Amino acid sequence: MSNHKTMKQIRIHGRGGQGVVTAAELIAIAAFYEGHTSQAFPSFGVERTGAPIEAFARIDDKPIRTREHIYRPDFLIIQDATLLLAVDVAKGCNPKTIAIINTAKPKAEIKINLPMENIHAIDATKIALEEIGKNIVNTVILGAFAKTSGLISLKSLEKAIKQKFSEKGEEIISKNIKAITRAYNLTK
Amino acid sequence: MKISQKSQILEGSNAIAEVIKNIRPAVVSAYPITPQTHIVEDLAKMKADGQADFEYIRAESEFAAASIVAGASATGVRVYTATSSQGLLLMAEVIFNIAGMRLPVVLTCANRGVSAPITIWNDHQDAMTVRDAGWIMFFAENHQEAVEQHILAYKLAESLKLPVMVNIDGFVLTHSYESVIIPTAKEIKRFLPDYKPTKDEYLDIKNPISLGTFAAPPYYMEIREQLYRDLMNAENKINEEYQKLAKAIPGVIKPKEKMTKINDGLIEYYGPSNPKTVLIAMGSMVGTIKDVIDEANSNWLAKKMGLPTVALAKVGVLKIKCFRPFPADAILKIIKNARYVGVLEKAVSLGATEGPLAIEIKTAAHNQTKAKIQSFIVGLGGRDVTKDMIKKIIIEVKKKDDKIKFIGKV
Amino acid sequence: MKITAKPSSTIINKTGGWRTYVPKTDLNKCIGCGTCVRICPESVITMSPNQEGKPKPKTDLNYCKGCGLCAKECPVKAIDMELETK
Q: What is the interface pTM, i.e. ipTM, of the complex?
């Protein structure tokens, strides 16, 4: 896939119970299968359903040593658009930061301090409810991330889902793969 | 010699559980506490799935878990437990007993701050609180180092009859994903043979003995002195076994980095050969410090950061991998000719003039170096240790003031 | 430094943003029985009389997490859970 020279940093915003941490882990696992070095960790927020939380992933081609949180993200993933009103999600972003936001609203209505062309809106909730049967959007939105970022392939993401969800059973794995594929294909 | 050099991407806790499974303890007992829980959950699952054949004994508290592994170890078998924070403090009485009875227990402490106020997040206060108990204490920077130190721990514990605590930063390492190489049981066995306790030193119904008996004033002191000396003398053995491990299982120890001048079982020094400033730290924050050091030693970056090009240059980081026994001589060699030493630590010795690690460094350095040594407290209760904080410390340590500083913000 | 906390101080955390589905109550269908008030795990539904003096429920959407228990338990099915657009 992409042959990036500098470390890519991904920050994911969501709420407890939405699989925010799992999303970061899936990115790291998928990047590992792409042959990159990678790292994922949670922001160690309050472990409570619904509370705003963050998780981080880094992708590089040399060993990743730093453990600090991600303050200057290259990619932002917003799993829950209500966070745009509750948390300063765009903090530390630069004019090149790409944001992928789960929302049913058109792009023009999204309130985030980033150039319009950097914003990618996807109705991941709709896809999650239809394909998985639950509003768990973490995998769905990664389908969009894979396409937008070019950092991980759909194939590696599938492999990551199979590893991470190995104990959840075939049905859940195939539903999630269907959902990410749909999100991937929907994304320009 | 065939080596399985395959790296995997695993959660830190899972990596530790995998290596413990391959070390093949006979008894595992633990009580769940965040952030250690995933390790023992994984081990319980391995047992339930038939991948491991140890006895997994559920305990009603950490005090019980420590007592169970102490008892099992006393019968001459390999044991394992893990805990964090209040759990380690609840074990404290047994922790002292394990060392006093010279039981080769290995414990993982997923380091977490201590209440009150309640925190589930990382610092080193738990481990520092039992630092005088008589255990060998390792601190890991990353997953691979945690794996390496656990294998080393069993070899040392069983040959020296000293318990070993491997400290890994809670959440930062236990809940993070990165690539790691887990040696197979067969590979580990090459370095760590099956545990055979010494005759007359373990509980055996065919050969009865008593352990942890009463020691009246004419005896107690010599027994404690023996423990002190054996722990102090473990330094050479730690380095010796570290070299053996590197040879026996290539890949289990991370390849030496370009800027790493020294790396053994006790310390790692990363930076220029004759540093003006040395930062000293333990655990996962060393990774972040290494990145800052690379920036600091590169002039154009210093310029980019708007700093005078010399302001950050000639900085190195000394990682303490082994806190007990305290490798004073090895540390002194690195800091002897430095001008400034900043000790970064995630624990406080309440009421003391310095942090617990800085106290040790200052004692080791007394009359041996002209360097200014200053204590910096960082990262308490999960506060992120940022690159900016480390840069600030590099500048702060050069100031005249040498009082302890808490760096929680930039 | 303050190390104590007062009762109910967590009310500053508005939890309405957590929900996926929002309850929509048809007040014409509603018989004012108050089951929703009693079942609500967040205690965010209150009854107050309408213009005709009949008790009707009101849900505080600042805190409703959209669990749907009120809709499930309503004896006349006056509450619908609708997907909220965010």
A: 0.95
